[in-house]
C-alpha cells in the first residue's frame, strides 16, 4: 500500500484577477474563471511498458509480461491530467511540443485530441523519431523508466513562439516539464515573465537538469516549482528523504528563487513553501492500494495547475493534487489511469474543490 497527501480542513478560494492573485493583494471567492487557459510545454513519448515480478538489479535479467504501448511523455501526461480534471470547469488545455513524422507521433497527437487537448501547437519534426519511454513496473507499482527523447530534443524557439499563438491568446497558467531542452525552459519562462497579462508558471524539474542549469532556471523565479525528493536532492546537492527534509528543501528552493515550492515525498505526502503569504506546511498521506505509480507525479502537476488556474488557495490546491495523484496510483496505465473528479472522490473520499462551470 502506498500513500499520497491526504485531506485537511482547508478553505476554498478564488482569485479576483491574475494581478491580485500573483502580484499584490490576494482576494478569493469560490467561482471558476470562465476564461482560464492552461498550456503545457513539454515532452510527448510513446510508453513501452512491461510488468515484472521484481525490478531488476544492475546486470540482472528478469522475465515480464507482454509489452504494452501507450501514449506518454511528462508534458502530454500533465496535459491529459489537466484536461480530465478541468473539463467540467471549462478550463481549456493546450499542448506545445514536438513529435516525429512517424506512426508513434501521429498516434500521440490523435490521443491528445481525443482527450480534449488542443494539439495544434504539437510540431511534427521531419527526420526525428518520436520520443519513447521504456517502463518497467513491479508488482508493488514501483517503476524504473528510461527515456529516449527523440523529437523532444528539437523543442526550441519556434515552439516558444507558439505559446502565445494565436496572437494575444496567452495562457492563464503555463506548465513546463523538464524532458525538453533547458534553453527552451528558460526561454519560455522569460517570455511568460514579460507577457501582459503575465502567465502563472508551474515548472516541474523532472528529470532534474544538472545543478548549474537548475540554479539558472530558479533565478528566473518560476511561480511554482514542483519536484520529488530525488529531484530536490539533485537541485540542492544534498540528500532529501522524508517529509521533514522535504519541508526544509521546499523552503530552500524558495530561497533559491522559486516563488513557491512543492516537494513530493511519495508515501509520506508532500511539503510546501508559499513565499507571498508566507506560509509552509506538509500534507500527510492518503492511504491507497497502489497498482501503478508511473502517472502519479504527472497527475499531481496537472491537478495542481488546474486548481491554481481556478483560483483555489495554495494549501488546498496541493491537497487536491495529492488526492488526484493517489487516485492515479490505484489505476493501471499512465494516461489511462489519470482520474476525473468523480474518480478522486471514489478512491479517496476527497471532494475535488474546483467548481463546475455554470
Question: What does this 3D model show about the protein?
Answer:
This protein has 358 residues and is an alpha/beta fold. Helices cover 32% and strands 24% of the residues. α3 (103-114) links the parallel β5 (92-100) and β6. It is globular, with a radius of gyration of 19 Å. It starts with a strand and ends in a 10-residue tail after the last helix.
Helical residue percent band? 25-40%
Gross morphology: globular
Strand content: 15-25%
Rg, alpha carbons: 19 Å
DSSP, total strands: 15
Strand order of the largest sheet: 6-5-2-9-10-11-12-13-14
Q: Supply the helix-strand structural class.
A: alpha/beta
CATH architecture: 3-Layer(aba) Sandwich
State the helix count: 11
Order of helices and strands: EHEEEHEHEEEHEHEHEHHEEEEHHH
Uncertain stretches of 5 or more adjacent residues: 1-31
Number of domains: 1
Oligomer: single chain
Q: Indicate the mean pLDDT.
A: 89
For the sheet with most strands, the description reads: 9 strands, mixed
Please name the fourth-level CATH homologous superfamily. Ribokinase
Q: What is the fold-level CATH name, i.e. the topology?
A: UDP-N-acetylmuramoyl-L-alanine:D-glutamate ligase
Distance between the termini: 38 Å
Amino acid at each position: 500500500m502506498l500513500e499520497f497527501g491526504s485531506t485537511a480542513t482547508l478553505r476554498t478560494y478564488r482569485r479576483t484577477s491574475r494581478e491580485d492573485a500573483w502580484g499584490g493583494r490576494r482576494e478569493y471567492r469560490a467561482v471558476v474563471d470562465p476564461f482560464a487557459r492552461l498550456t503545457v510545454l513539454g515532452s510527448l513519448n510513446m510508453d513501452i511498458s512491461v510488468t515484472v515480478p521484481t525490478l531488476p538489479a544492475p546486470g540482472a535479467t528478469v522475465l515480464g509480461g507482454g509489452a504494452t504501448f501507450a501514449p506518454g511523455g511528462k508534458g502530454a501526461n500533465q496535459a491529459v491530467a489537466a484536461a480530465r480534471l478541468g473539463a467540467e470547469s471549462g478550463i481549456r488545455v493546450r499542448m506545445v511540443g514536438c513529435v516525429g513524422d512517424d506512426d508513434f507521433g501521429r498516434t500521440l497527437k490523435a490521443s491528445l485530441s481525443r482527450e480534449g487537448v488542443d494539439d495544434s501547437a504539437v510540431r511534427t519534426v521531419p527526420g526525428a523519431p518520436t520520443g519513447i519511454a521504456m517502463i518497467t513496473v513491479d508488482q508493488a507499482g514501483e517503476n524504473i523508466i528510461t527515456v529516449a527523447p527523440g523529437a523532444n530534443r528539437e523543442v526550441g524557439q519556434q515552439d516558444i513562439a507558439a505559446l502565445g499563438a494565436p496572437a494575444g491568446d496567452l495562457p492563464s497558467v503555463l506548465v513546463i516539464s523538464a524532458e525538453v531542452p533547458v534553453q527552451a525552459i528558460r526561454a519560455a519562462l522569460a517570455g511568460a515573465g514579460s507577457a501582459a497579462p503575465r502567465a502563472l508558471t508551474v515548472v516541474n524539474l523532472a528529470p532534474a537538469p544538472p545543478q548549474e542549469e537548475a540554479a539558472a532556471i530558479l533565478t528566473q523565479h518560476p511561480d511554482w516549482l514542483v519536484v520529488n525528493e530525488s529531484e530536490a536532492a539533485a537541485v540542492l546537492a544534498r540528500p532529501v528523504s522524508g517529509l521533514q527534509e522535504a519541508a526544509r528543501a521546499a523552503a530552500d528552493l524558495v530561497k533559491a528563487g522559486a516563488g513557491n515550492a512543492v516537494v513530493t515525498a511519495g508515501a509520506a505526502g508532500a511539503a510546501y513553501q508559499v513565499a507571498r503569504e508566507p506560509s509552509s506546511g506538509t500534507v500527510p498521506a492518503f492511504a491507497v492500494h497502489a497498482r501503478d505509480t508511473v502517472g502519479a507525479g504527472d497527475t499531481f502537476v496537472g491537478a495542481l495547475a488546474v486548481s491554481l488556474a481556478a483560483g483555489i488557495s495554495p494549501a488546498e490546491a496541493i491537497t487536491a493534487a495529492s488526492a488526484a495523484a493517489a487516485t492515479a496510483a490505484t489505476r493501471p496505465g499512465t494516461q489511462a489511469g489519470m482520474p476525473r473528479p468523480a474518480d478522486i472522490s471514489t478512491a479517496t473520499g476527497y471532494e475535488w474543490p474546483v467548481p463546475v462551470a455554470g
